[in-house]
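Changelog-linked ticket: uracil example.
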Amino acid sequence: MNPGGRGLTARQQQVLDELGLVRWLPRSGQAPHAIPAGETGLPDGAAWTELAREAASCTGCPLHASRTQVVFGTGDRAARWMVIGEAPGADEDAQGEPFVGRAGRLLNEMLRSLGLTREQVYIANILKCRPPGNRDPQPDEVSACASLLARQLDLVRPGVILCVGRIAAQSLLATTAPLASLRGRVHALPGNRIPVVVTYHPAYLLRSPLQKRKAWEDLRLAQATLDGVAADQ
Ligand code: URA
């Protein structure tokens, strides 16, 4: 299949398949939701417990050997907002929680500008284990971790996903498009149509504070999208 006619490579399609995101559906499409690969039929509480247990003992890629601990995800498991980043850094690896370093503090400020605390959103990463030296995630690592994120998404069922940074956006949307072309519009997550808004990674914004204005536009787009989702319900 070639979701959305975007010319996916076999590798990108494989990642989509592993995420359980088997169909491209525009937001306005009429087709039913795809069934995520991770669906268990368990009540949500039991499904979270099982998922966290699986993640904690995961040896699905070589990163398990160098991690201090798995960085599973944090926040409100029934949140309307889900933030998806790239991978844990040194602080996150040490503390077991995503976005707790400098970039995390800026993410908290970005959320605060929306009237949100980090406890009110659900925050996770594409990878649950730290790549050594903070190198970019490898495709096999993204693919090994994909079903954990798919199952988190299926359990949270957010109204909007704020995807921060190029790597997270390209992995989630199975594209090689540059970040500049991905931000500023709303994507539909292939398969389940959850709206995705892409913005700059807070670590990049720390280095390039002049881009914060554009990030703020992205946040407002995400808020407007969520308001639209709520109005549709
Ligand atoms: N950067 C990320 O993408 N995720 C984290 O959890 C921390 C830094």
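Closing comment: Example verified and attached. The two ends are 30 Å apart (CA to CA). The chain has one domain: 42-232.
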